[in-house]
Specification:
Blueprint: E1 22-25, H1 49-65, E2 69-72, E3 90-92, E4 95-97, H2 109-119, E5 125-126, E6 138-140, E7 145-149, H3 156-165, E8 169-173, E9 186-190, E10 199-202, H4 209-218, E11 223-224, H5 227-231, E12 238-239, E13 243-247, H6 251-259, E14 263-267, E15 284-285
Parallel strand pairs: 1-2, 4-5, 7-8, 10-11, 13-14
Antiparallel strand pairs: 1-15, 3-4, 6-7, 9-10, 12-13
Length: about 290
């Protein structure tokens, strides 16, 4: 049984400490919406590749301005969703668990990312046997992985991740098809340390009743998002423990985060959102 995290509501804002991160991203050179594999995708609507590239570049540069390292993988023709790097791997303590996609259109992406890790010196790379869409459905809290299921990642992939990565995995069920990946409905604001519990933000209505009770028990001080936050992909944010990168439309969530001592940093992801992606979707974190 996992114990409830102690309260940290009254922590001083000055204790929000940013930690330097390392990210892997993929330029959207071949970005398109040629098919629909989630409710946000509409192939009949035009896509501006130049604008998508400019938005992605600004997101990458924002991370670098915040002091983080960003590495890039070469995009491949015919794989328009390869820009959403978060779906292609989970890296904890230098051990890499790759991806296995549910949609046939994305299946080839997994091997390109696998090769990138091998070519960059990672030897502990394991590819999953079950459908596993990586950080799209896996959120590392510093102590455990919160793992989503219901639309993409198989529930059996949660046990596989625990065995391969050697960390506890807690299953959560998603029930709203608009929020088909965990990273559209929940993200970690600050990871747990020896002295502090993890702090998260999430949209309760995206989860089953049982999963909502689990989250409320484990994270009583979580920042709760509303429908407006969720609909603009506000929960697809990226936090370094202090600076929180959010879509420009997520103003309500930004205000609540600022009240908790975080520094909202806005990013325009409107073109990328046409494929159901936001800041986190574009960002795979490499944890050594």
């Amino acid at each position: 049984m996992i114990a409830t995290e102690p309260s940290h509501t009254l922590r001083s804002m000055n204790l929000r400490v940013p930690l330097t991160r390392r990210y892997l991203m993929c330029p959207p050179r071949y970005f398109a919406v040629d098919y629909a594999i989630n409710p946000w995708m509409d192939p009949s609507q035009p896509v501006d590749v130049g604008r998508a590239m400019a938005q992605w570049t600004e997101l990458r540069d924002t991370y670098r301005r915040l002091g983080h390292t960003v590495e890039e993988i070469e995009p491949q023709p015919g794989l328009p969703d390869m820009v959403f790097a978060a779906n292609s791997g989970t890296v904890i303590d230098g051990r890499v668990l790759g991806a296995r996609f549910r949609a046939k259109e994305r299946v080839p992406e997994a091997d390109h990312y696998r090769r990138w890790f091998l070519e960059h010196g990672y030897r502990d790379v394991v590819m999953p046997s079950r459908i596993n869409e990586a950080e799209g459905d896996f959120a590392w809290t510093g102590r455990m992985i919160l793992a989503g299921t219901g639309f993409r990642t198989d529930p059996e992939a949660h046990a596989e991740a625990q065995e391969i990565l050697g960390v506890p995995v807690l299953s959560l069920r998603l029930v709203d098809p608009r929020y088909y990946h965990l990273d559209t409905a929940l993200f970690v604001l600050s990871e747990a340390t020896e002295s502090r519990p993890a702090h998260i933000a999430y949209y309760p209505e995206a989860f089953s009743a049982g999963s909502r009770r689990v989250l409320a028990r484990l994270f009583p001080d979580a920042v709760l998002a509303d429908a407006a936050d969720a609909e603009c992909f506000g929960l697809n944010g990226v936090s370094d423990g202090r600076n929180v990168v959010l879509p420009v439309e997520a103003t309500g969530l930004a205000d609540r985060l600022a009240g908790q001592g975080y520094e909202p940093v806005f990013a325009d992801i409107s073109e990328l959102r046409k494929a159901g992606g936001g800041p986190k979707c574009c960002t795979l974190e490499i944890r050594k």
